[in-house]
């Protein structure tokens, strides 16, 4: 069985599309929290017995960690490939 052969261009494309799709998910999550945050806050506060300020802090932390994950897993490797295989600066 032959191994899958991926070119640098395909890998760059994959990383960039993955980052864009993940940013779309992050945007939907942010807009959902922004538009329905009070109702979601009450629901989560009741489920987990948390104060509303704690719920907001937890959501802020989760969205921030998700964004950091996008940068570390997709955008930083994409940028590194662009720099290395373009022969200099992007």
What does it look like?
This protein has 90 residues and is mainly alpha-helical. The protein has one domain. The chain is built from two helices and no strands. Helix 1 runs antiparallel to helix 2. The longest helix is centred in the N-terminal third of the chain and has 41 residues. The radius of gyration is 19 Å and the shape is elongated. The two termini are 37 Å apart. The model has no long low-confidence stretch (mean pLDDT 90).
State the main characteristics.
2 helices, mainly alpha, 90 residues, single chain, 84% helix
Give the helices and strands as they follow along the chain.
HH
**What kind of oligomer do you see?**
single chain
The percent range for helix content is over 70%
Count of helices?
Answer: 2
Transmembrane segments: 14-36, 57-80
Keywords: Membrane, Transmembrane, Transmembrane helix
Domain DUF6868: 7-84
Protein name: DUF6868 family protein
Question: How are the elements arranged and paired?
Answer:
Layout: H1 8-48, H2 52-86
Short description:
The chain is an all-alpha fold. Helices cover 84% and strands 0% of the residues. It has one domain (8-85).
């Amino acid at each position: 069985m032959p191994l899958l052969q991926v070119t640098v261009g395909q890998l760059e494309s994959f990383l960039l599309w993955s980052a864009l799709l993940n940013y779309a998910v992050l945007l939907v999550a942010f807009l959902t929290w922004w538009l329905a945050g009070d109702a979601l806050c009450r629901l989560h506060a009741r489920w987990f017995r948390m104060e509303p300020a704690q719920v907001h802090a937890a959501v802020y932390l989760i969205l921030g960690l998700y964004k950091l994950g996008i940068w570390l897993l997709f955008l930083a490797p994409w940028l590194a490939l662009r720099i290395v295989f373009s022969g200099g600066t992007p």
